[in-house]
Design brief:
The protein has 17 helices and ten strands.
């Protein structure tokens, strides 16, 4: 008998009493008829690539964040890479970032042929710890890449105060709606620029896609050119006036551009983002009420903070599990949730412990103990504005079953 079968029978009856609905997909997006109609209109327009809807989405997204410029991309990874490349990060440089992130955050530093330097995180919210950054800054440090982890604000302001001349490229993949205590957006607080993800599981989705946001017009212009083969004019600019304009490559760029098909989704996702955030907050608070005080399962402290003077983006609802006390491995817990049709996520396996970084830089367990502890204990449960109240109750019942309640 597996440990999954041995443990937590107490809530079996409660789960069995619920209907047997379709599986709850982790991170399922909320897609409305407006998005569907916009995509159909784009298909009928004959212009599917980067064009007027992409440019409109860029303007509206920048305005939402109170930023000067935005460059649409095909992913957040692309946006991060464009930023570092445009800032001149290259061989011999070091870029400081967090190990508690999706591996793409570190990979883009490698793509620039620079060296990723990890610093440990804060115990209450998993964001990059400024005092740990101070321990690894060297004359070779070219930039810092903090992450707004799970939707919680990284302490960008402290980093900016400590390093006024270093570029700070924020990985804001989890953080469109985040607002600092002073009212500034997730692209603010002294950031040089911020990169956003519109992947299918994100709070705002274009299926795949991303955005680089900045107040630096030169950086935005450089990133835009690099995003489409280094060309000095995209196809819409060359053809829209009815008069062909020639073009040339001014830098060896990439194929990172957003399309109008993606922007067709993004325009309406952005229009309802505050309403969707309010629904996510309702679910978040329901989870907090249901899980506070459970044995062997802890709510991260940042998740319990009130929203009076700041706004968490409420992207990932994570829980910290004591696997030894539960008598489960994380793999077995994922299997157990799956028995009840509930998808969960691992956010994240610490970046420095992935094989490439172990083999290349010799990282081992113990290098960044706070990040490793959070990484090892964490599972993310479904959180989406598309969840029904019944689905929320199913998730709660399953978590309580795992906890033996």
């Amino acid at each position: 008998m597996s440990s999954v079968e041995r443990v937590r029978p107490a809530v079996e009856d409660a789960l069995a009493a619920l209907p047997a609905p379709d599986p709850i997909v982790f991170g399922a997006p909320l897609i409305g008829e407006e998005e569907i109609a916009e995509v159909v209109a784009t298909l009928r327009s004959g212009w599917l690539g980067t064009g007027p809807k992409t440019h409109r989405f860029e303007r509206e997204f920048a305005a939402y964040l109170g930023a000067g410029a935005a460059v649409g991309t095909n992913s957040c990874t692309a946006a991060l890479h464009l930023a570092l490349d445009a800032l001149g990060v290259g061989p011999g440089d070091e870029v400081i970032t967090t190990p508690l992130t999706f591996i793409a955050t570190a990979n883009v530093i490698e793509h620039c042929r620079a060296t990723p330097v990890f610093a440990d995180v804060l115990a209450d919210d998993g964001t990059l710890a400024p005092e740990q950054v101070a321990a690894v800054v060297t004359p070779r440090t070219k930039a810092i890449v903090p992450v707004h982890y799970a939707g919680a604000a990284a302490d960008v302001r402290s980093l900016r105060e400590a390093y006024p001349d270093l570029p700070i490229v924020v990985d804001a993949a989890h953080a469109v709606e985040l607002v600092y205590e002073d009212g500034s957006s997730s692209a603010g607080a002294g950031a040089t620029c911020a990169a956003y993800s519109f992947y299918v599981t994100k709070n705002l989705t274009t299926g795949e896609g991303g955005m680089l946001v900045t107040d630096d017009e030169e950086l935005a212009a450089s990133a835009r050119i690099r995003s489409l083969h280094g060309l000095d004019a995209d196809a819409w600019s060359r053809y829209a006036s009815g008069r062909f304009r020639n073009y040339e490559s001014v830098v060896p760029g990439f194929k990172y551009n957003m399309t109008d098909l993606q922007a067709s989704l993004g325009l309406h996702q952005l229009a309802r983002i505050d309403a969707a955030h309010a629904r996510r907050c309702e679910i978040w608070d329901r989870y907090n009420d249901a899980f506070l005080g459970l044995e062997a399962i802890e709510i991260p402290p940042v998740s319990l903070q009130p929203r009076r003077n700041r706004r968490h983006a409420r992207h990932l609802y994570t829980l910290w599990f004591d696997w030894d006390e539960l008598g489960l491995t994380r793999e077995e817990a994922v299997e157990a949730f799956g028995r009840y049709g509930i998808g969960v996520g691992w956010h994240f396996n610490a970046a420095h412990l992935h094989r490439f970084y172990r083999d290349t830089y010799g990282y081992t367990l113990g290098a960044f103990p706070v990040a490793e502890r959070i990484s090892h204990r964490t599972l993310s449960i479904p959180l989406s504005a598309a969840l029904t109240d019944e689905q929320v109750e199913r998730v709660i019942a399953a978590v309580r079953w795992i906890a033996g309640e």
